[in-house]
Design brief:
With 96 residues, the protein is an alpha/beta fold. It has one domain: Transcription Regulator spoIIAA (2-Layer Sandwich), CATH 3.30.750. 35% of the residues lie in helices and 20% in strands. The strands form 2 sheets. The protein has a 3-stranded parallel beta sheet, with helices on one face. Strands 4-5 form a two-stranded antiparallel ribbon. Helix 1 packs parallel to helix 2. It is globular and about 35 Å long. 23% of the residues are buried. The C terminus is likely disordered.
């Protein structure tokens, strides 16, 4: 199994972060990797005031790229989900 790691600057600009992650996916595919590891906050940035809608859209695009290329992700991002009137802040998710 080949695992790639991506070390890149993390900003609070979700669009820029998304482009960096997709680029890292493409690079990992070129390296014949099966899993890509990314830094903490690589998609959401290091802020508690991110645009949830923009982040979910970017996350969907990143996941589509990973799925299209059959690569696993250990994606460092944060997003919130409402469950029974309680906000849950996710810092990791598993996508099969």
């Amino acid at each position: 199994m080949i695992v790639s790691g991506k070390k890149n600057p993390v900003s609070n600009d979700i669009e820029l972060n998304k482009k960096n992650v997709i680029s890292a996916i493409q690079q990992a595919i070129a390296e014949k990797s099966e899993i890509l590891l990314t830094p903490e906050g690589c998609l959401s940035g290091y802020t508690h005031q991110f645009n949830q809608k923009e982040l979910i859209q970017a996350l969907e695009e990143v996941l589509q790229e990973a799925k299209k290329n059959s690569i696993g992700l250990a994606l460092g991002t944060c997003f919130m989900k409402m469950m029974e009137n309680v906000k849950i802040r996710f810092v990791s998710i598993k996508i099969s």
